[in-house]
Amino acid sequence: MNRLAFIDICKFDSDHYRAGILVTDRFTDPIEFRCSSPVRPTALQKILWGRRLTAHLFCHVFGKPLIECLNPRPDLVLARVSQLLGIRAVTGAPTVLVSPKPELEHRLLPSSPAHYLCASREHTEDLDLAMPVMSPLAAILAPLEPFQRVFTAIQDVHQDETRAKAV
Hints:
archaeoglobus fulgidus dsm 4304 fold, alpha/beta
């Protein structure tokens, strides 16, 4: 497994979202970074999608386009927001959640403090794919550290674009 993709979402102000994906090698050295455009759901979208709006935004509006533009595709997608597990259904890419608490189907990583890899019940095979890669990595790197890089990069891109618009 050579290409890992760490995907995360940033929320700016009350309803303004942006996503980013960091593709790395198995040691988390960066290969590629992509960031979405900012999205602010309209009042009509909020009404029509109801409680499913967040999952729709995260998987269909952000996740699918970010993953499909990668060439080659990642061997494994890792997320820290549970709504992103739906990426598996819309892209076919093996996807696991990295979480400090056990959710859904899960396996404990050898990290301190404890972290878990979690997958949807429909795709527990994604855990079998992820554990051999993430277990040795968790012994030398905080499991959520790559997501901090993605989050910070998204914020940096957003600030740069905001400053450029102000000039």
